[in-house]
Design brief:
This is DUF5318 domain-containing protein. It holds the Pfam family DUF5318. It comes from Geodermatophilus poikilotrophus. The chain is α+β, with helices and mostly antiparallel strands and 132 residues long. Helix content is 31%, strand content 26%. The chain has one domain. The protein has five helices and five strands; from the N terminus they run H-H-H-E-E-E-H-E-E-H. Strands 1, 2, 3, 4 and 5 form a five-stranded antiparallel sheet that branches. Strand 4 and strand 5 form a beta hairpin. It is elongated and about 55 Å long. The protein starts with a helix and ends with a helix. 18% of the residues are buried. The C terminus is likely disordered.
Length: 132
């Protein structure tokens, strides 16, 4: 899903003075750190400060990801996960490391479709007495 129309509306409000910079340049320290270590640099200049290039940070979510859910991943890590995991969602966020602008850019699904005929994984092992 592409969020460019929503982004355009937010920026129109900023440029018209209806929305303050403090409301849109509010990247959390965690998001800024994820942009630094896990983000992918883009050629897109920040639409607010017009000084820095935006960084794209991709977060993964899915019921089969366990402790990986909610983590930022690089494109290389996403490619590996795409081949090895069941379906999961990716949310890509644009971040300006200079002024703190951030906005959800897009979301998409990666991974293999779950096999409907496959039995669900067991969540715990049975003890020897339970097996009798």
């Amino acid at each position: 899903m592409d969020y460019s129309l929503q982004r355009r509306a937010v920026l129109a409000d900023v440029y018209a003075g209806r929305t303050g910079l403090f409301e849109v340049c509010d990247a959390s320290p965690y998001l800024t750190r994820a942009a630094k270590y896990h983000g992918e640099a883009t050629d897109v200049t920040c639409p607010v400060c017009r000084k820095e290039r935006l960084t794209l940070v991709s977060y993964v979510y899915g019921e089969h990801l366990g402790p990986t859910a909610g983590q930022a991943k690089t494109q290389a890590e996403l490619a590996r996960m795409d081949r090895a995991q069941e379906e999961f969602s990716v949310y890509a966020v644009q971040v300006c490391r200079g002024c703190g602008w951030n906005h959800l850019d897009c979301s998409y699904v990666l991974g293999a479709e779950p096999d409907p005929g496959r039995q669900p994984r067991r969540t715990r092992r049975r003890t020897a007495t339970e097996q009798l």
